[in-house]
Amino acid sequence: NRKQLRKPSIVIFDLKTDKLILRYEFNDADLVNERTPGGLTSITVDVTKDRCDDAYAYINDLATEGMIVYSLKSNTSRRLNHPSFVHDEAALNFTVAGCLEEIASSDKAAFVHMYIIVFFLLTWFYICMCNKDFFFFFFLFTILYIKIGQTYK
């Protein structure tokens, strides 16, 4: 039996020094029940050049169908609930512009949209090859190393 020892957190490290910059534990209003921590599967950072202190993080909650929005500037978070976050269990395929081709690679990536969270291994992912200017941007981990931290004993 696993026992959660601390609340889920946003953890920010300085990649040059490996020093902890910030740890923010989610509040009880964000964690609606005991299923919530298991549903926090992805984080997207919204940061503007020259305004890094005014960044936002969007964390999806697949278990209880919501989203948590964190503000670095105010060091606060709030939970959003909306019918658009409810997943459709019958929807299994995700396509890009209807033009798909398999890419064989062992690289991992995460594509995140505010309302659609899709995880994949590029080995299994199909990507639209119709557009030669289609690029992958690994913005999340190149700027800051941020993760949702859960500690279990």
TrEMBL record:
<keyword id="KW-0732">Signal</keyword>
<keyword id="KW-0812">Transmembrane</keyword>
<dbReference type="Pfam" id="PF03022">
    <property type="entry name" value="MRJP"/>
</dbReference>
<comment type="similarity">
    <text>Belongs to the major royal jelly protein family.</text>
</comment>
<keyword id="KW-0472">Membrane</keyword>
<protein>
    <submittedName>
        <fullName>Jg25943 protein</fullName>
    </submittedName>
</protein>
<dbReference type="GO" id="GO:0005576">
    <property type="term" value="C:extracellular region"/>
</dbReference>
<feature type="transmembrane region" description="Helical">
    <location>
        <begin position="133"/>
        <end position="149"/>
    </location>
</feature>
<keyword id="KW-1133">Transmembrane helix</keyword>
<feature type="transmembrane region" description="Helical">
    <location>
        <begin position="110"/>
        <end position="127"/>
    </location>
</feature>
<dbReference type="InterPro" id="IPR011042">
    <property type="entry name" value="6-blade_b-propeller_TolB-like"/>
</dbReference>
<keyword id="KW-0964">Secreted</keyword>
<dbReference type="InterPro" id="IPR017996">
    <property type="entry name" value="MRJP/yellow-related"/>
</dbReference>
